[in-house]
Design goal:
Layout: E1 5-7, E2 20-28, E3 47-53, E4 60-62, E5 64-66, H1 68-72, H2 83-99, H3 101-105, E6 107-111, H4 119-124, E7 129-132, H5 136-144, E8 149-150, H6 156-166, E9 169-175, H7 184-194, E10 195-206, H8 208-213, E11 226-227, H9 230-239, E12 243-250, E13 256-262, H10 271-282, H11 288-294, H12 297-314, E14 319-322, H13 326-334, E15 344-346, E16 364-365, H14 369-372, E17 377-380, H15 386-392, H16 394-398, E18 402-405, E19 411-412
Parallel strand pairs: 6-7, 6-9, 7-8, 9-10, 14-15, 14-17, 15-16, 17-18
Antiparallel strand pairs: 1-5, 2-3, 3-4, 4-11, 10-13, 12-13, 18-19
Helix pairs in contact: 6-7
Bound molecules: zinc ion.
């Protein structure tokens, strides 16, 4: 199994080396490889989880790359199971349709379309849509829901085939997927090829500025290869003769940026681009020492969280988790929290229920399980949804249950 690990030496975007390490979370099982059963004779493969930074284009990135087929063949994350994400994409589709009506009338292509969470909204607004997603199981679900979806990895070659069959795309979207690839240049040259001459490429990526500011070290996992600020994105677009003409901050996944790009000289470049670039420079995102400082964060969170939970356990309290997300698996593994501390963890996604968290082996149940086996403490691993979770499960408070939010600083509510 270890054979499927590739070690890169150069920056994924600009090719600069050597890259400098700033974060080391030890060895970790793959965050989305939920276990159907526990088999002590077959230990799961674990891979180094380390983040490096490029001193030239400032892209933060993993250098230990797990074979993408192993990561994405079966994917347990169905975007539509998250109501917040569904609402976000509904707004996204409406906003893009209003701002770029001519482009939206042409084909809308979504790279990493998951179960069609975004495209179903574009379709309702009257667009012709096409999804692309390498995870066969999610692509099938999208197909069943009436969203035409090609089960493949998007690259230049596929772009040529799609162009021949469907013509150019007026809008190309890619949300939360560009962080998950080490094939960036191949993807961007495909986008350049397939995008209509007046077309718009809109994408959202998790913002490294928020990761550092909000201490989100748990957002590090093997699927998450790139951690973007605007600077490396501008370099990447320029290498493919494209321009970013607008950028916005959005709330998704604890803080992301939405970038609007096109062929050169199609849209005037808005002041937002320079403004964010200057702002992140001031924040130190183009300086290695800022990243280096962040390397102390995980240790502190681990120390405080394990001390608190062990104290509760000694008092005989039952502890449940909420949200078996990828970041939850990183946090659990790094803090070495297993079923001895966390009795069970609940998650909305039926595809995860009945399984065990990778590496930490905690049983995953449906949220209704909380009623059958009422805990004393609920640790919210999906902390970006903490408010809506506490609202949905407000009955727990009446039972005297305490919520623990682990990130950015431990909060007991
Ligand atoms: Zn670079």
């Amino acid at each position: 199994m270890q054979k499927s690990l590739i070690k890169r030496k150069k920056c994924l975007i600009c090719g600069y080396k050597p890259l400098k390490k700033y974060l080391d979370l030890g060895k970790s099982a793959l965050a989305n490889s939920y276990l159907i059963r526990l088999d002590s004779k077959k230990p799961e493969p674990r891979y180094p989880l380390r983040v490096f930074c490029c001193s030239n284009c400032h892209l933060a990135q993993l250098i230990d790359i797990v074979d993408r087929k192993q990561l994405f063949d079966e994917y347990a994350y169905f975007s539509s199971t998250s109501p917040e994400l569904d609402l976000h994409f509904k707004d996204f589709a409406r906003h893009i349709s209003q701002r770029f009506p001519d482009q939206t009338k042409r084909m809308v292509l979504d790279i990493g379309s998951n179960d069609g969470v975004l495209l179903k909204h574009f379709r309702k607004l009257g667009s012709t849509v096409l999804g692309i997603d390498p995870a066969k199981n999610v692509a099938e679900t999208a197909q069943e829901n009436g969203i035409p979806t090609l089960p493949l990895f998007f690259d230049h070659l596929q772009a040529e085939k799609i162009l021949k069959k469907y013509g150019p795309a007026g809008i190309i979207t890619s949300n939360n997927t560009l962080a998950h690839t080490d094939n960036l240049h191949n993807i961007f040259s495909g986008i350049k090829k397939l995008l209509d001459i007046h077309g718009v490429f809109v994408f959202e990526v998790h913002y490294v500025g928020n990761i550092l500011k909000k201490k989100e070290f748990d957002n590090t996992y093997h699927e998450h290869i790139c951690y973007y600020s605007l600077a490396p994105i501008l370099t990447l677009l320029a290498m493919h003769t494209m321009n970013a003409f607008d950028v916005e901050k959005v709330e998704t996944h604890g803080g992301s940026i939405r970038v609007y790009a096109s062929h050169p000289n199609v849209f005037p470049i808005k002041p937002s681009v320079k403004k964010l670039f200057d702002q992140e420079k001031k924040q130190g995102l183009h300086t290695f020492s800022t990243y280096k400082k962040f390397s102390n964060v995980p240790q502190k969170i681990k120390k405080n969280l394990t001390a608190l939970l062990q104290k509760y356990k000694k008092q005989g309290k039952k502890i449940a988790g909420y949200g078996a997300s990828a970041k939850g698996t990183t946090l659990l593994q790094y803090c070495q929290l297993g079923p001895q501390i966390i009795d069970y963890i609940v998650d909305n996604a039926p595809s995860k229920q009945g399984k065990y968290t990778p590496g930490s082996h905690i049983p995953i149940k449906a949220p209704e399980h909380l009623k059958k086996d009422i805990p004393d403490i609920v640790v919210i691993f999906a902390w970006n949804y903490a408010n809506s979770i506490m609202k949905k499960e407000a009955w727990l408070k009446k039972q005297g249950v305490k919520f623990v939010i682990p990130i950015p600083d431990i909060k007991v509510i």
